[in-house]
Specification:
Elements (H helix, E strand, L loop, with lengths): L3 E3 L22 E2 L4 E4 L7 E8 L6 E5 L11 H12 L4 H10 L6 H22 L6 E11 L2 E10 L4 E6 L6 H15 L3 E4 L14 E3 L1 H21 L3 H14 L10 H10 L5 H16 L13 H17 L6 H15 L4 E3 L5
Parallel strand pairs: 1-11, 6-9, 9-10
Antiparallel strand pairs: 2-4, 3-4, 4-5, 6-7, 7-8
Helix pairs in contact: 1-2, 1-3, 2-3, 3-10, 5-6, 5-8, 7-8, 9-10
This protein binds zinc ion (ZN).
């Protein structure tokens, strides 16, 4: 978390604005003296307000100091602190206890309502500001608890911009829904590359060559398999096979990584291509798979991984989902990543007034 958070301030003086909220004419007259309205806040106990009347249309209205929404007892500052404290890790109960310690009132359920409302505002802000021109669209799914049941979430991330573009409630196993969302987002943002891990559901949504695998994920999963087979070769006293797997591991780790399968990989593939049994068959399968997927792995010079997507899911979602029993309603589940994204701020600063 970087940068500063700015909480809304609470005004102690009234700005005499004579504009009628209904007919907009600037002839409003003072209709009452200044009254003290008591509020819940840790710095001030009341704000001034007075009634105004419009001589043109007869409307009366209340002139308020800034920092308290109409009909609210708690100041915007208190509500913003509730949202911030929750997003930084306190539970709703913890937030209520913090605010009570500050003499600012509120309960578990008001904290929950503050967070839900801020989440919806953050989501609207986000949708209004969604930029086009994304080069690489990273996609990944995760599970989340919703009302005690498992609800999948799919995250769409601008890899270059390192920011969340869109979150949807979709199970990764629901192939039709995943394909629909991915296809729509790819068209919407005009991305040239779709970046995912090696999951069959993402195959053939975009033309061949546009879908690339995360290098980190690919290296890790192939490397893990090669290690397993190497250990098995050692246990079975097959030094030649152990040597082949050790060589494969080196090829997987090559830097810079050749864009096409290296000749040495092809000769390893040939060496095992007729093997149909036991360990040799497993090695054959792994080598063929590595050869087949070699060119599908991203060779993006800027960032060939999907790490940004995984980090955004981790930051916004898994941590929160682990510390609570889950989200109670879909709109809260979907709004949460947007609120987290908003709180990470633009250029390190975040003004909470925007979501309160
Ligand atoms: Zn008027």
């Amino acid at each position: 978390m970087v940068g500063g958070y700015r909480l809304p301030s609470v005004g102690t003086t009234l700005q005499l604005d004579r504009h009628c909220p209904d007919c907009q004419r600037p002839h409003g007259r003072i209709h009452s003296g200044v009254r003290r309205r008591h509020i819940r806040d840790w710095k001030v106990t009341w704000v001034p307000q007075r009634r105004m009347i419009c001589p043109d249309c007869g409307l009366t209205w209340t002139l308020r100091a800034q920092g308290v929404h109409p009909g609210r007892q708690r100041s915007d500052r208190v509500r913003a602190l509730a949202v911030l404290a929750y997003m930084l890790g306190l539970s709703y109960r913890g937030v209520a206890m913090l605010l009570q310690a500050l003499g600012s009132g509120g309960s578990k359920s008001t904290a929950e309502r503050d967070v839900a409302q801020a989440g919806q505002k953050a989501q609207r802000l986000h949708q209004a500001s969604r930029r086009l021109g994304v080069r690489v669209l990273g996609v990944d799914g995760t599970g989340a608890a919703l009302a005690g049941r498992d609800a999948g979430m799919l995250f769409f991330v601008d890899i270059d911009g390192r920011r969340l573009l869109f979150a949807a409630r979709v199970q990764e196993s629901d192939a039709a829904a995943v394909r629909r969302h991915v296809g729509r987002l790819m068209r919407q943002v005009g991305a040239r590359e779709l970046r995912t891990d090696e999951h069959g559901v993402y195959e053939r949504i975009v033309p061949e060559g546009q879908h690339r695998l995360c290098l980190a994920h690919w290296r890790k999963s192939k490397g893990k398999r090669a290690c397993e087979l190497m250990r098995q070769a050692v246990a079975e006293h097959r030094p030649l096979e152990a040597e082949s797997m050790s060589r494969l591991l080196e090829l997987l780790r090559l830097k810079p990584r050749p864009p096409t399968p290296p000749p040495e990989l092809e000769s390893l593939v040939r060496r095992y291509s007729r093997c149909r049994k036991g360990l040799l068959w497993k090695i054959n399968q792994l080598l063929q798979h590595v050869e087949r997927t070699w060119e599908k792995v991203s060779d993006d010079p800027a960032d060939p991984t999907n790490n940004v997507t995984e980090r955004i899911i981790g930051l916004t979602f898994k941590i929160r989902a682990k510390t609570m029993r889950g989200f109670k309603a879909t709109h809260k589940l979907v709004a949460h990543p947007y609120l987290a994204s908003f709180l990470r701020g633009q250029a390190g600063a975040c003004d909470l007034c925007e979501v309160i």
